[in-house]
Amino acid sequence: MSTYDYILVGGGLQSGLLALTLADRRPVSKVCVVEAADRVGGNHTWSFHAADVPPEARDLIEPLVVASWPGYEARFADHVRVMPSRYATVTADRFDAVVRQVTTDRGWDLRLRARAAIVNANRVILDTGEELRGRCVIDARGPRDAGRGCGYQKFLGLEVETITPWPDRLPVVMDATIPQEDGFHFVYTLPLTPTRVLVEDTYFSDGPELDHSVVRRWIEAYLGRRVGGWRVVRDESGVLPMPWQPGPTQSADGPLVGGYAGGWFHPATGYSFPVALRFALAVATVPPEAAPQATAALARRLSPRWRFARFLNYLLFRLVPPDARWQVFARLYRTLPPAVLARFYALEFTAFDAARIVVGRPPRIDPFRALRLPRSSRWLSPSLS
Ligand SMILES: Cc1cc2nc3c(=O)[nH]c(=O)nc-3n(C[C@H](O)[C@H](O)[C@H](O)COP(=O)(O)OP(=O)(O)OC[C@H]3O[C@@H](n4cnc5c(N)ncnc54)[C@H](O)[C@@H]3O)c2cc1C
After folding, report:
1. Which residues make Cβ contacts (< 8 Å) with residue 64, sequence separation at least 6?
2. Is the pLDDT at 377 greater than 60, yes or no?
3. Domains observed in the chain
4. Closest residue (by CA) to atom 45 of ligand 1?
5. How far is the CA of 36 from the centre of ligand 1 (A)?
6. What's the 349 CA to ligand 1 centre distance in angstroms?
7. Is 236 touching ligand 1 by the criterion CB < 6 Å?
8. Which of 3, 86, 150, 315 has the smallest number of Cβ neighbours within 10 A?
9. What percent of the chain has pLDDT over 90?
10. Residue 373 pLDDT > 80, yes or no?
11. Pairing status of strand 80-83 against strand 87-91
12. Neighbours of 18 (CB within 10 A)
């Protein structure tokens, strides 16, 4: 039986960020990462805003960045907003390479193609029957079926090599100048080089269904309007729950649950990076046995912001009809100063920021939408009120 200071179960974004912060802050620890796939990080492109990374973590994160831009755009039928704040992207390939390097340098145990069957507070049993012991076990096995009130952010992205240069210099985080269908519908474009771009067709929708062949044709039609020709080099897709009800709470005698499964993400954007990074920093600043207390303190600090973000999801998915949802984002991008948007994305907004987010000309509301819902998901749960 092997024993460790930390066992990180699931080698995705959360565990990779934990490995980087532990390597920096607790380099003499003994760490094991258990990942079911044959590499770390899966098939993702993660992007983040400058304010998502606290100053003390910038040097840690920079080796992960494959591309960055001095700003980004959001486009709506009636206006375009250019935000003058850095936007950066991490690919799974780079993530895998950096995390492997860090674990190799420290002599840590990176167990790929290893599936955890049982995960307890101090013990992990692999499906081979092998038992691992840890002073701190962190369960970060990724998004699980929410099983609670939520809307969905769902998308399919094609990374393409284009024949003619991509016409935009900056990422467009929302191009909502397209027909609105199945909720808030927009295209996300990330010009990784002048001739390589990730194009994601995205929906903020009531249901999780996504017909890949239909969406793929849709992206190809969009590409056809923008470049002379292209070759698909990769695709990625996701269906992320956007909850308006709170998630399961951390159990006192279970493993510490991190990442998406533990609720360490931004409920109203689906972005994980800022919150998973703060979780990793909280874990790495204290000895292994104190990690649950350190992350509980962080959860208490973030709790009002999580509640507010879930409240926004409730408004968006339960009161605003699908075809009017774009108005919510158009107003935010028309009225909010860059600093407020940056704090919103980073889940570091103030009470005054929150007031600015909700006060203003409302979108079209359908008060009967909520009444048509199943009774269990009709009202805000007590902890959301
Ligand atoms: C395609 C896509 C793009 C996204 N883009 C962004 C973005 O730009 N910015 C952003 O902030 N967020 C983004 N997100 C949201 C969020 O960052 C991801 O969901 C994030 O990867 C969640 O991190 P995690 O570590 O909790 O889970 P994951 O990264 O999903 O990692 C979980 C890992 O656990 C492993 N695993 C599962 N079960 C077992 C088991 N039994 N034993 C061992 N290993 C197991 C899986 O193989 C996986 O590698 C994106 C999500 C998707 C799906």
Report:
1. 20, 90, 94, 95, 98
2. no
3. 2-146+244-301 (3.50.50.60), 150-243 (3.30.9)
4. 10
5. 12
6. 25
7. yes
8. 3
9. 87
10. no
11. unpaired
12. 27
